[in-house]
Amino acid sequence: MKSRRILSVVAALGLMAAIVPAASAAAAAPAATQVVQLTLVKALCPSYTVVPANKNPANFDATGGHSGELDTSYQTTLTDPATDIPGVCARADGWQFQLYGDPGLSTTVGSPLTTGADGAGTGSITVVLDPTELALAQTTGAPTGLWIAEVTQPSVAGFGALRCFSDINNGDNRENIQGVGTADLHIYCIAYDVLPPSTYHALTPTRILDSRDHTGGLGIFSSHVAQTFAVTGHGGVPSGAIAVTGNLTVTQQTSAGFLFIGPVAMANPTSSTLNFPLGDDRANGVTVALGSGGTLSVTYAAATLGPTAQVIFDVTGYFTPDLTGATYIPLVPTRLLDTRSNSGLAGASSSHVARAFQVTGGAVPGNATAVTGNLTVTQQTSAGFLFIGPVAQNNPTSSTLNFPLGDDRANGVTVALGSGGTLSVTYAAGTLGPTAHLIFDVTGYFAH
């Protein structure tokens, strides 16, 4: 197994019943032409250990594997491509393959093939071998003269293996062709690529959706009408992001209900992200995959059609499918801030006065770039919201936790750390003067 920008691997274009020595194949009279229909399937898998194309899957690795090894002991009969794709792998469209004639074939024997937009990760092409190409394919032995090169996307995935149906001898990156010239063939091949682990990039919280003023391009939400907004290209989220963290808030709802946020628009979602009664500004921290084109879709779902609500989304970070960001280390929940007992900060916070407290130095190491945790408000003397982030803001433009008077309320957060491993928290009421007690429990951290 080799991770390369262009990977040349031999395709297995043969029938099980026609496995004969190369000398016997050479003695047979070649047919005038040979029609080979190829259906290629692209599968993206989370781990090399699940790729079923290795003599000993338990020893499968990303650094060299068992290159060229004949796989006669693993699986000898392949009849349906669907049965040879592990359930944890996903089919992918938009992946390109190139068909070649080698060695000795002077021209490409097929056109570039791209898995299409059918959602099944498949692409098909029919190749007609002329007498010269067919003779080479029949006489060159193993490897024969027909090759497939997979044009990988190295920033997205690393090559795992190619496996073709109707072939008994499989290796990580070599397929032994048998039986070309016996009959017209229809061959399925699965090319496995392995997704790298995603890593996290923390951001200063930024509002990218506010239906009250059309930030994000959306207006007020009507019940059971999904609306989609762009995430990549906004708030510091790049085009390569696959998921984001953030804070979803509802306000001015005319009926109790729930919000759904996700990568696919759903007018009648079957799961909820944020549940709320009438007349309660409420928020929830989320980690959510991005949809096609780097978008997210939000639905306000009330019991009936007609009610409306305003929706806000503040992005706090993003994930990329590579190792350029930070990895997550969970912790036993630890209380770092409790103003009631002068832990972290002394005394209640006053409205619109930002206060910073130390995060690193104990359970969280000095190289941490962000943390996850639980932010709680209690004993507030006025309704309002809390903001937590890496930079002190007396008048924050995004919120982390919204609450009414007299309600102890918490919200899960993922937040970037500021200079010196600190976080700043602000209680924002409608006026100066009100106070509130604040609590923060850390549950994990991100570090390079």
Protein model, in words:
Helices cover about 5% and strands about 40% of the residues. With about 450 residues, it is mainly beta. It folds into 3 domains: about 5-195, no CATH class; about 200-320, Jelly Rolls (Sandwich); about 325-445, Jelly Rolls. The strands form 6 sheets. Strands 2, 3, 6, 8 and 9 form a 5-stranded mixed sheet that branches. Strands 10, 11, 13, 16 and 18 form a 5-stranded antiparallel sheet that branches. Strands 19, 20, 22, 25 and 27 form a 5-stranded antiparallel sheet that branches. The longest helix has 9 residues, at about 130-140. About 40% of the residues are buried.
Count of helical regions: 2
Report the structural category.
mainly beta
Q: Quick one: biggest sheet?
A: 5 strands, mixed
DSSP E strands, number: 27
Task: Give the overall silhouette.
Answer: elongated
Report low-confidence residues grouped into runs of 5 or more. 1-30, 54-79, 102-110, 140-144, 166-179
Mean pLDDT: 77
Write the layout of secondary structure elements.
Elements: E1 6-10, H1 22-27, E2 34-45, E3 90-91, E4 96-101, E5 113-114, E6 122-129, H2 131-139, E7 146-151, E8 158-164, E9 185-194, E10 199-210, E11 221-222, E12 227-230, E13 243-251, E14 257-262, E15 274-276, E16 282-289, E17 295-302, E18 308-320, E19 327-338, E20 349-350, E21 355-358, E22 368-378, E23 384-389, E24 401-403, E25 409-416, E26 422-429, E27 435-447
Parallel strand pairs: 2-9
Antiparallel strand pairs: 1-7, 2-3, 2-6, 4-5, 4-7, 8-9, 10-18, 11-18, 12-17, 13-16, 13-18, 14-15, 14-17, 19-27, 20-27, 21-26, 22-25, 22-27, 23-24, 23-26
